[in-house]
# Entry
Amino acid sequence: MTSRANPKSARRPSAGIPFGEPKSDRLAALQAALGAHAATIRTRRGQNVALAVEGSEAAFIVHAGALTLNVTMPGTSRQVVAILFPGDVLRSGFVPREAEGSLVPASSGELWRLRWPVFAELLAKDPAIASFYHEAINRQMARRAIHVAAIGQFDCQQKVATFLLELALRTGTPSSSGSGVVFDMPLSRTEIADYLGLNADTLSRTMSRLRSSGVLNHTERNRALLRDFRALAALSPAARALIDLHGERQLAAS
Amino acid sequence: MTSRANPKSARRPSAGIPFGEPKSDRLAALQAALGAHAATIRTRRGQNVALAVEGSEAAFIVHAGALTLNVTMPGTSRQVVAILFPGDVLRSGFVPREAEGSLVPASSGELWRLRWPVFAELLAKDPAIASFYHEAINRQMARRAIHVAAIGQFDCQQKVATFLLELALRTGTPSSSGSGVVFDMPLSRTEIADYLGLNADTLSRTMSRLRSSGVLNHTERNRALLRDFRALAALSPAARALIDLHGERQLAAS
DNA sequence: CGGATTCTTGAGCATATTCAATTGTGGTGG
DNA sequence: CCACCACAATTGAATATGCTCAAGAATCCG
# Structure
């Protein structure tokens, strides 16, 4: 990982856009290191994953698929606190009690679960696991900072643009037809709205506007084609931060 | 630490309200364990604390005082991502690059700083340090979840009530005159507004309303007297979650 | 193909923002 | 000690942005 305050980091905002590639090799190595300590959970959209194992704290590692981490305060609608993708880590204590926390798969995938004390032990013993964990926490904290800034300061269109950008960077692949990016839409409109602190109606309107302006294009129900990446990036104040964050791995390889 | 999903945790929402007490003993023990590895930084309100040491990542531990962690996306106003109090931990990687991150003391206090690799080493070697760190991350993640829910879903009054509640629980002490709680207001109106994703004008209006309804009372400039804790708690959907989160230490002692 | 769910879209409304004027506070120097 | 300044906080009136509610269209699923 490059150092944070490197005065001139080798980012190329105008050149190739760095899209997330599966880090399956690294996760596979991790799985080997975790050995028999981790329970594998196959996830299916909408089911509820229990945040604790038999009353004790647990650690989760996302292997495949996407999940939403939700919180609901009494009298208000649900808030999607984070969207978890492969490589992300969750400790059940990250969700406040008395807040109706829930972990809900947005698509089918796989999850590894360990009891926290066991995982803590592994963290102390295995430097590779520790490094993975600290990296993951680092990334997730940074992502949350961007998320907080988005829901706190952005207007509706900026929020939506930021969300689409995030999705494109994390799960998108360059489209076969050249200039665009295609990516899955694992979340429903309501879920996206709850993630962005928006009304579902307002969100729908905004996305329609993006579609009619030619930036976006729904091919199928749960799939999107981003026609103009640059135009979308120009709509999101967080574009540079997001590209920097998600392009990190790509940079290391270049 | 109590297990997260203990079916009937021994919380007493209606009985005594658990206010934060200084954990100076635990922090003192930590300081001893950190030994000569940590640099001590005295903070003064408004100064800017560099997030990196000579270009490499750093870890910070708050010993005294309060700090704001800020992020500013181009074209939008600053967002206060978190307010850090004694016992909180920050790794410079938690702040996304390209987001104009800054760490700014809200009051005078003290900060310990280590190079990240050194701290990571200590984490692996010293179980007490590891446990402290994981606890801190746990708490901060949970707090951020509440914060996200607040800026995403709450209306103006709920946001303000939640903020005041958080401050009262984290830094307040029962007032000498009996029923109230007094606490410092380390943040300016603008900073509070940026923390809550509100306009400073709107915030001021809302606080005036709370004051005229008798819940709140400014004694001096940077000090507040919370007259009616229960009334304020009733205004915040996050009240239960916050009390649960900040009352934990108190419970352990009881 | 029908029924349920999700998504879209419009019209009216409410809440928070903007902008500007005013008051209050703290610091500095005469 | 007071006058002065700069800055922070308060408040009002007008505006705008996103929300609510309700109806219709599209999509999914059995």
Summary: Residues 188-190, 200-201, 204-205, 207-208, 221 of chain A lie near DNA strand C (CB under 10 Å from a C1'). DSSP finds nine helices and twelve strands in chain A.
